[in-house]
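User: Quick sanity check before I run a bigger batch. Here is a single chain. Can you write out its predicted 3D structure?
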Amino acid sequence: MTDEQTPESIIGAMARAARAALPVLAAAPTATKARAINAAAAQIRDRADEILAANAEDMAAGRDKGLTAALLDRLALDAKRVEGLAAGLETVAGLPDPVGEEIRHWTTPNGLAFTRVRVPLGVIGIIYESRPGVTADAAALCLMSGNACLLRGGSEAARSNTVLLDCMAEGLEMAGLPRAAVQMVPAGDRALVGAMLGAHGLIDIIVPRGGKGLVARVQADARVPVLAHLDGINHVYVDAAADPEKAVAIVRNSKLRRTAVCGAMETLVLDRALPEATARAVLGALADGGCELRGDAAARALEPRAVAVQPADYDTEWLDAIASVVTVDGIEGAVAHVQAHSSGHTDSIVTEDGGVAGRFLGAIDSAIVLHNASTQFADGGEFGFGAEIGIATGRLHARGPVALEGLTTYKTLVRGTGQVRP
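Assistant: Done. Predicted structure follows.
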């Protein structure tokens, strides 16, 4: 940054360049956008060694800085994850293009014909920590939905993000699309984040992906609409009618597959009427897997390795091998506890009773509610979206994994034959 430059001028220049790219993106055929994304996927595969080398430097620097295990897990790339990024991009490229899709058509008695169609949101600012995969996922989703994006990754992933952004830019160039459609805001200067949050009229929406502190700051300071979730306080309720094998597998996977993801289970809810052998097996599977259990008296009686839970634990997103445990009286108790403590992200029930499952699915107002499935399916790729730009827990615009459709709004086209309003 020179003496003449300010954070506002830097973000302003980037946003204006992104806005200039919007008409080109809006007019780009689906095949052209898909070609750019597929070319970027090929670049990621061809440069996998370079990406992994950059990520190794980021990981080493992160360890030196004392990053938590959760942040290091989000930062880490390996050959499988890099291939997953490339494959995810190819999935996005093959999805139906939402731009121009007709949502509804109707005609009024005076003969006016109305058509509601999907259109891009515009310039999207994505602010994220660790997670270098967001660079590729967000860029591809924005491109396919006709949006330009300004990406602001954390300094801890700067090296990884630089290579991945270059792969995306090369894909754009190969398809004849403007490189300004995907730009990286320099990491390290927090004032640039503030400038993004204040760029009303230049940036159309902000999507934060990171820890509670980052998301809270964005939601508090933004003068631009925000699409976000603050916490992933997710529950798995094991009902009295649960299949024991399913219960053990689902609970263990929900918590321990990856403890640092926002879809990880944080609280286990057990029906008091659950057979003791099943309850012990579920709790034992977690404890045997290295999970610290913080339970109420009934849970501690079933699993001696559990320690006493504190009231605040039920409102904590652990993002670690820790789980709160509560015992409740049937579906009514489960719904009451989840409604009181869920962050509205993802909650699951394990039961063979279809009536009880239906009551849970209907009563729990989270963005994602599952029956007999792990909470770790809270992921755009698992929903068949190829990737996601984030998971939204609010009630406006989009909920759950936000992919192509969630990155569009709509406009209404009205065709007349000379009508005037009386």
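The radius of gyration is 23 Å.

User: Great, the batch can go ahead then.
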